[in-house]
Amino acid sequence: MTHKIILTVGLLVCSNIFMTWAWYGHLKKAHWGFLTAIAISWMIALPEYIFQVPANRIGHFSQGGPFTAPQLKILQEAITLTVFTGFAILILKEKMRVNDIIAFVLILSAVVVSMWGRPAIITPAIEDETKIEAGE
Q1: Whole-angstrom distance, CA of residue 10 vs CA of residue 86
Q2: The domain containing residue 64 runs over which residues?
Q3: What is the spatial distance between Cα 19 and Cα 23, in angstroms, rounded to a whole number?
Q4: pTM recorded for the entire structure
Q5: Helix, strand, or coil here: 60?
Q6: Which element (helix H / strand E) includes 116?
Q7: Average pLDDT over residues 31-37
Q8: How many Å apart are CA 44 and CA 12, to the nearest integer?
Q9: What would you report as the CA-atom Rg of the chain, rounded to the nearest whole angstrom?
C-alpha cells in the first residue's frame, strides 16, 4: 500500500507542476495575446491530465488505493499550494505574506484531519456494489 501512496503523491506533484505552469506561466509572457496564452496553456494542461487521472485512479480505494475521493482532493490542494508557492517565489519573484503562510498552514491542517482514519462504510459499500453488479 505504501507504494500506491508514494506513486499517487508523485503523480499529483507532476500534475500540479504542469497545472501551475498552464495557469500562471503566461504571467511571465506579458507580450503574449490572450489567444496565444490560452492556446499554450491548453497544450501545457494536457500533460497535467495525463498525470492527474492515473494518480486519482491509483490512489482511490475503488481501485485498491488507500484514499477516498475527499482525501485525494484535499491532498491535491495541499500539493497545489506547495507547488504554487515555489512557483510564485522562484518564477514570479513574489513574496509570501503572513496571511498566505497562515492560510497554507490551515490547508495542511485540513490534510491531517482528512487523513485521520478510514470510514468504516467504505469496504461494505464496495462489496455491495459488486453483489449488485453480479445480480445477487
Answers
A1: 16
A2: 2-134
A3: 6
A4: 0.75
A5: strand
A6: none
A7: 94
A8: 15
A9: 18
Q: 124 to each of 8, 72, 130, how far by Cα in Å?
A: 24, 20, 10
If pLDDT is split at 50, 70 and 90, which confidence band does 91 have?
A: very high
* Cβ–Cβ under 8 Å, residues 24 and 37: no
Looking at residue 2, its pLDDT comes to 87
C-alpha cell at 56: 486519482
| Residue 28, H or E segment | none
As for how many domains the chain has, the answer is: 1
Query: Cell 489567444, residue?
Result: 35
**Are the C-beta atoms of residues 86 and 80 closer than 8 Å to each other?**
no
- Confidence check: pLDDT of 134 > 60: no
Instruction: Convert 13-52 to b/e letters by CB count within 10 Å (16 or more is b).
Output: bbbbbbbbbbbebbeeeeeeeeeebeebbeebbebbeebb
Phi-psi group of 134: left, alpha or beta (phi > 0 → left; psi -120 to 50 → alpha; rest → beta): alpha
Residue with cell 507532476: 14
**pLDDT (0 to 100) of residue 110:** 83
First and final C-alpha spacing in the chain: 30
